[in-house]
Each structure stands twice: as structure tokens, then as C-alpha cells.
Give the backbone structure.
Amino acid sequence: MLGLEKKDFNLLLIVAALVVLAPVLLNPFPEGSAMAQFNAGYPDLMQRFVIFGIFAIGFNILFGLTGYLSFGHAAFLGVGSYAGMWMLKLLSINVIPAIIFSMLIAGLVSLAIGYISLRRSGIYFSILTLAFAQMAFSLAASVLTPITGGETGLQTNLNDPRILPGFLGGGSSADGNIPKPSLFGIEMTATYEISVGNWLWTLNWGYAICAVVMLIAFYISIRIFRSPFGLMLRAIKSNQHRLSYTGLNTRPYMLACFVISGMYAGLAGGLMAAMDPQVGAERMQWTASGEVVLMTILGGVGTLIGPVLGAGLIKYFENIFSKINKATLEMWFSFAPDWLEGILVSIVYPFIGKGWHLTLGLMFMAVIIFLPGGLVEGGKRIGDWVRGKRGKAANDGAEVKTPAE
Amino acid sequence: MGILEVKNVGKRFGGLQALSEVNLSVKENTVHAIIGPNGAGKSTLLNCLVGKLIPDTGSVMFDGNSVLGRSPHEINQLGISRVFQTPEIFGDLTVLENVSIACFAKRDGAYSLNAFGAVNKENDIREAAEHILDDVNMLEKSGMQASSLSRGDKRRLEMAMCLSQKPRLLLLDEPTAGMARADTNNTIDLLKTIRDRRNITMCIIEHDMHVVFSLAERITVLAQGTPLVEETPDNIKGHPKVREAYLGEAQV
Amino acid sequence: MDQIILQILNGLDKGSAYALIALGLTLIFGTLGVVNFAHGALFMLGAFCTVTLSRILGLSKEVIDETRTDFLGNPLKVDVPYIYDWFGESAGAAIIDWAVPLSILFSIPIMIAIGVAMERGLIKHFYKRPHADQILVTFGLAIVLQEIIKYYFGANQIPAPAPDAFIGSFDFGAAIGMDPGAIIYPYWRIVYFFFAMILIAAVFAFLQFTTFGMVVRAGMADRETVGLLGINIDRRFTIMFGIAAAVAGLAGVMYTPIVSPNYHMGMDFLVISFVVVVVGGMGSLPGAVLAGFVLGILESFASMREVIEFLPGINQVVIYLAAIIILLTRPRGLLGRKGVMED
């Protein structure tokens, strides 16, 4: 189906189902209940889930397949965002040119940076990408202020030119407000709410578009993984020397991979600008590059679905975990006697709210130390363990004739 | 005129003259062995042939093309494949994938950025790869991860990768080093089969004289970076210069 | 002329900090072969040793001062540090004033302990893992350390002033016979520079002239052989990790009067120090020191007004630009050895 093996097609279906059902799945708690603050099914957050999913999928194409650890990927995300913003300002408020141009410009920038950085490998490659990204960040925050808006950032304005004709989203808005990014008249913020009993589900156009783009991006990444191109990239990770002595020129492969990965980041950046039309330089900082590394590793580097899971998990933590405050904790532990409640609250408190980064760091270290394959490997191990137990139970019942595999 | 012509090649590492005035001519469709004591410059010579090192002087011509200054993948695309002393394979990939990569390189050239194909739909590649794996008796291991193979199997896999490229010149760097006797004999048989098909030139560096004398048609003896003699196997045995090189002057 | 001297001087103190951090990074990389992304966090921990010590010294009790009254006419309550009770008021005040230099003594054992604990508890499990894993796990550790500090000390900068004796500036211009006021240089930065030189000299002397250092240097060159000689190289490397942590920590301690400590100062320095290490040449100690000073001075030259007018923004990027150029033209860095971190 769609040129995929059955297993991969099923994976695509599962991801599609998750993405479509996300507004329901992420709102498991009824409105007004004590747990309602753990509902993640609001448009802003759901958009971020899929956008960072795209970012991480792209990063994984580079790091997961070739093993080249880029510490400067946020630069492409930022470039994509700026390019998208300028399209929204200059061409039209329609998101399609913004998304396309964000990919193209990010692709060009990654071509230039990749061409130079890929002359080195290993830690030198990581440092080169880091240096380029830091340069981009510093310049965006200072000298390039006419293009990037400097420290205040870049927004859409009432009197932006928007030269395309009106039906394509050009011109000024009818009501005299700053126009909102839209797709042929449908605003990204347009939202419908469905309530079933006490449950409230939010359907949002912006999320729908991001979700479709993410599914396409995921599909393309499956195709890349299964293609001869993907095989060569995995061969680069495994033994670059052998590949050269087998008559293959690794440079075009690496450069193409780097550019594809940069375009994914640019796409994510463009979508970010389209969903929320304001961009600041901090989006390019190296901590943002670190974040996508965390997502990919946490989910499972080199696996198809890992980066998506990792991105979802980290964004969930960032938005939901960080909202828990002392009062919530006190409510949770109110069953305990006062002295115990105090102790429990003071133990848990450093890890939540503003301290969620601490939890993230610890979780990340635990994954690297104990589970280098990330959550996907964890799932696999649990699956094997369950199957092993069941298999054992079945074997115990019957006469064991052949040794276990 | 041989298929490989090495003329006056010299290579110096700091104060050490590793190669000097090396002249070598390998005739097409023959097996040519290069022997010599440790430190004679055999591996350096091989590295100069595949582009890992660039000689300071001299020329290396393969089938009328200069090899010097070309990168390893270009030299390979000219038709020179190399089996390394320690097997160089793609450890993370399966045996079949290892050989498939070599088949892709043969079919598509130095690169083909086919990001939308599917490896498992490339039937001709798979057939070619399985055919070669069958030749080296590894077909039943085609799904195994290459890093989990035994040392002998790794070497056979590497040889399969090189053979699947149908190279015109196959360079073998101590193909039986560290192998058990039985494995060595298997390798000799395999190489003999390849030799007897008469469409490949082989250049072997080897310490094991049993291997050398079972396979080689010409033998060059290298000592201290210079070729001493080039002869047929029969004439090499008992050649005074060779004994001198191996046993030292005191023995003569 | 005076501008050039001023920029060189300005570059020296930043360069000293770069050099010290890069020196520690290189010690760890050279001995243990580990790429330590948590090294910036060690620098930050050093700075917070100073903060902690000055807080401890400042612990006070509330005393009613009968001689003075507040605006309502009640006797004034003043905070009197406990330390006044023990050493008398003037000596106590002097000790508090000298909190930053005193932190040197305070921080050395703490930083060595932290370094050794880090090596034994975490890093040693990563010797055989790929460099990417080492980078990632130490990156995670850096986040954790940084967040712990943020939890206890808050997100704001905490000033830690230099002793009164070093506040103010030295008129360098007048001292070398130029116009007074042409080159003014804060005293503390001079102190920092000399401190850094002494520390660097001490590390080199330790490696050069002690048996311990000789073994470590031999281990850096060829770990296996030294191990085969029956020397327990691992234990020495653990101690070296502790020393490297102490060097980073001391760099942080003494830097506090120049930049008030905050929880993310380590990350800010880390990126640049890695660039410094790579420019100097992975695994080369003199290279790290040289590159630290060269890049520090380069950075301050790039922030001269004349240069910025000519090349806007150059001050922000000059270090990275230099790193990119050097990495592309001299892959091993300024003084790198062959075979280190090459594939």
C-alpha cells in the first residue's frame, strides 16, 4: 500500500489514527474535574506536538540513519520560521506559500552549512554545526535586526504589503484587524468544540493542517528509511570506510541527507510561524537544538516512530507537568496525615512546576544509561518479556521437545 | 603491458623510506602474489593502489588510467576492489544488505540519490546478491546481522561484497590471516574457483606460503621497500635472493 | 596604540576563563577519552561555591542596637553575623569582605569530591560507549546540575563582589608613561589573569615534574601499555577528573566578581570552551591554553568600535568564525596531535 511494506503501512495507520483521535485521546478527563489540568487536547499544544514531531522526524533522518550528531538544528527551524513570517508579510496571509518557502530557504541554508560542516565527522561535525547555529543566533539577535526584528522578534502587521490578490490571501483584511494566517479564508485559529457529557473536545483547523503535513512527513521518512538511499545512509553510520572502498561517494549522500533533515526543520519552523505569527531569535538557540536531540533519543533514535513519541512526551511534560503547583500537590497528598503530606510534597515539589527540566534531565540520563534505544526499545523489551513469559507458560504445560529459540 | 602498471613508486614516512623504486606489472587474468618479510612495504604498496595513501614519486596505471590522486570510491569504480586484513564490513546491517550495497554500487555508480525506491523491490539486486552469497556458501546466513558472524564468515562476506562488484582487479590483504586450517583451505578453494573462471585479476599479499603456492602464477618478493625478484612459483622456491631476504645475510 | 593595549588586556581575562575551562576539558578528554558536556556546569558549581560560602559567612542573628533608633523611635534591630562574635567585628568584616578569595580554599575539596563522584558514579560507565553517548549523557547531567542550582538559588543573578581592596581600576596608561586615563583596567581582572596563570602553571608543573603527572602523561599517550606495566591508571585518571573539576571550579570561583553567578552561566561558557578545545587541538593542553587566550583577545578586538563599524556583528561571531576557519584548514587544531579523535 502506498509503496510500503505491510508492517510499515500498519505503522502509518497507527500514527494516523493517533493523530486523528488526538483531540479525544488527549482529553481523557471531564471538564471541571480535578484532573482536567492534565488534558492536553487544546489546539495550541496539539499543534506543538505534531510540529515538534516533524522536527524530530527530520533530525532522526540525519542522526538516526547516519550517526552524525548535529547540535545546530534549531538554526534551520529558526530560518524556516523567519522565511515563513516574511512570506506571510510580503506575499499573502495564506499559509501555503509560507510553508513552501520556509522549506526552500531552510534547504538552501542547510546546503551551505552542510557543505562546509560535512568536511569533518564525529565531534568536529557536532562542533561545526554548533558554531554555525550559534553564529546564526547571535546575528539574528543583533545585526540582522532589519530582517529578524532582533530581540523583539518579527510579527505580522496591519500594513504589511501582502502583494498577492485577495483570494490568495493578499491585501489587507476587511475588518481592519491584523489578518490571521489562513488557508484560502479558513483561519488557523478557527476552532469547533464538541461536548459529550462533561467531556469537551476541540477541533482546530491549524491542528488539522499540521497533522496532515506531519503524516506526509512521516510517510516520506518511512520511504527514505526503506529506500536504497536510506540503506546507504545506514551503511555510512556502520562503516564509512567500507562504503568508499565499495565505490560509493559518501559526500552526496551525506549532503542530501543533511539538506532533507534541514528542510524538515524548516517545515516545522514554517508551520510554527503559520500557527502563531511571531518569531524570536531564541528559537535558534543551541538549547533548542539540544531539545530536538533529547526528543529523538528519548523516543528511540534510528526508529521510525521514536522521534514522534519523544516529541510528544517532552512537549507534554513541558506544558502539563510544569503546570502542577504546590496547591495541586497538597490536594493529591491530602489523604496522608499532615506531617507525611509535608514530606511528600517537599520531595515531589522540586521535580514539578518550574522544576520539570530537572525531571527531564534525569529521565534523559536514565534513557541514555539504561535504554540507549529509547522508549521504542523499552516497549520492545517489555513485549519480549511478556511474550517470553507467555511462551514459557505454554511450554510448561506441554512436553518441551524443542529448545526455545 | 599488464592491467596494473606500477612505475618507480616511492613513499616516505618521516625518516622511513617505506617504498622506493617499486616497479610492478600485473598481467590481466592472473594471480599475482606479493610476499616479503614484515615491514617490507607490502601493505603500504596496497594502500597506494586503492587511494588510501598517495605515493611521493612514480605512477600507478590501471588499464590505462592513472590511479594517483583519485579518491577510494573512484578507484573502486575503475574496477579495483580490496579485501582488508581485518574484515571491513557493515556490522549493523544484515549479510544480504552488505552484499546488496556492493551490488548497488556496481549497478548505479558512485551515487544515486534514490530516496523513493524500495530496497526490497529491487529484485535484480537481491538476485545478484543471493547468487554471490550462494557462491560463498553463506546464503542461509543472509538474514543475520553482519557483526554477529564468525571471523571467517566476516572475511567471506567481505570477499562476497568485492566479488559481487565483478572487479577486474581484486586486491587481497592476507586473506587467510588468523584463520583455522580448515577455513584457510575453504578460502583457497574459493579463490581457486574464482581464478579458474579466468575473468578476474588477483593480487594477493600473504604470509602463508601454502596459500601463495596454491594460487599464485607470478610472485614478487618485496624487501625493504623494493622488489627483489619477480618469478614463477617454481623458480621462487630456493631462489638465493629470497632466502637472503627472509633469513638474513648471515645464513647465506 | 592605547586601544590595542586595552583590547589585549580586555581579552586576557576572558581568555583566562576560556583557557581554564578548556584546560580542564582537555585534561578529561586526554586522560579518559571522554567528551564532557557537563564541564560548564562544573564552572558554574564553582561560582556557586562562592555564593554558598558568602551566605554561610553572612549568617546573622538579630541584635537590638540600643544606641540607635529607627524612625519610630524604637531601638534599631540590626543583623550581626555570627562571625563577628567569633573573630571580633573588624576581623569578621574583613573575612566577609574576602569571601571570594576564601572560597578558593572552600571550593577545592568540594569540587574534587564532585569530580571524583561524577567519574566513579557516571562517567566510568561510558568509556566504551560512543562519543555521541558521552556527549548526550553529560549534557543530561549538565541540565540536572543546572536545575538543582536553580531550585536552591533561584533564577536570578547573585552578585558576589570582590574584596574592597580590589575594587576600582588601575590606570595602566599612566603606569607605562601614556596619558593618564587612556588605559583603565579593573584591579580584579588583573588578579584573575595572574590567578589563571598560576593555576595553569601549577597544572603543567604537576604533570611535568611529579611521578603522578608523568604516569598520567604516559597514560594519555598510550593507556594500554601503561596498564600493562601494572600501574593502576584508572585510579589516577579518576583523580585527574577531580583535578579537572577543581580547575573548572576555581575558574568559576574567581570569575564571580566579573560576572554575577547565575544557573545557566555554565552552558554559556561551555559552548565557547568546546570551540576553544577544538581550535587548540583535541587532547593538547598547551593548545587549549593558547587557543583560550587567542580567542579571548580576538573577541575583544572584534568588539572595538572601529571594527564593528566596518564589519557589523563581528564581535558576536568572531569566535565561531575562527573555529570554522581553523577546523577547515587545520583539522587537528592549532597544536593537535595526530590520531586524536580522527576516524
Notes: The first helix of chain A runs from residue 6 to 25. Residues 6-285 of chain A form one domain. Strands of chain A lie at 154-155, 182-183, 186-187, 191-196, 199-204, 278-279. The mean pLDDT of chain A is 86.
